[in-house]
Design brief:
It is a single chain. The chain is mainly alpha-helical and about 220 residues long. Helices cover about 50% and strands about 10% of the residues. It is built from nine helices and five strands, in the order H-E-H-H-E-E-H-H-H-H-E-E-H-H. The longest helix is centred in the C-terminal third of the chain and has 28 residues.
Length: about 220
């Protein structure tokens, strides 16, 4: 059974991520003109990978996003140029600013750890600790219409767990189904100390994340419980 096609191409993800970012960081210049949007896509800071796009490529991609409702074109009264804004809140009803900020950074910078996400969202939204970042990511993992992000467990080639957005498809470093099944079925010993209790809570959250990923794989493969 073939997988469903990704919702966004890498360039489409870059455009959506930029529009979300600039709405927050440059509200006086938002919505963005085509020139400003192209410059945002080609930034050499806060981007991975670095892109070198011309306005025609950005315009073609933005037009494609418009036809699918991801982006709106805005005509400002008295203005001489058209501007663009994202429609992420309609695409994913119920997402609030903290979750949208995390999704934006994942769209713009690829797979990241909890620490990296907390640091890189500071200019968009402040998180008091890693637990609050993880709690918001869980809302994206367990989103009612299907997971929007996934947790990639630590393993060969990955020293610590990382998080990835799923709008452009499954991340290349996803763990095999067998590994997810095994991890999701593990049990956690009763804690003996406060430190053990904190560890237990983190493990339980990671198990819930992996269970959500497993359920998503079952749906895609047509497997019934």
């Amino acid at each position: 059974m073939s997988d469903a096609p990704p919702l966004l191409s890498p360039l489409e993800a870059r455009i959506v991520g930029c529009l979300i970012e600039k709405e927050i960081t440059l509200p006086d210049y938002y919505p963005l003109t085509l020139n400003s949007l192209t410059a945002a896509c080609n930034q050499t800071t806060n981007r991975d990978p670095i892109m070198a796009l011309d306005e025609s490529a950005v315009l073609r991609t933005t037009e494609a996003l418009k036809t699918r409702g991801w982006v709106f074109q805005v005509t400002v009264v008295g203005g001489r140029v058209n501007k663009f804004r994202h429609n992420i809140r309609t695409k994913f009803v119920g997402l609030e600013k903290p979750t949208i900020c995390l999704l934006s950074v994942l769209l713009l910078r690829g797979e990241q750890t909890l620490s990296e996400l907390r640091q890189r969202t500071e200019r968009l939204c402040s998180f008091p600790d890693l637990e609050s970042v993880e709690a918001e990511l869980m809302k994206l993992v367990t989103y009612s219409e299907g997971p929007i992000v996934a947790c990639l467990p630590a393993g060969p080639g990955r020293r610590v767990a990382q998080w990835a957005q799923l709008l452009t498809g499954e991340p290349g470093g996803s763990a095999p189904t067998q590994e997810i099944v095994h991890t999701a079925s593990m049990t956690v010993a009763a804690p003996a100390t406060a430190e053990d209790q904190a560890w237990k809570q983190r493990m339980e959250m990671e198990i819930e994340i992996l269970k959500a990923q497993l359920n998503r794989l079952k749906v895609k493969l047509g497997v019934e419980d």
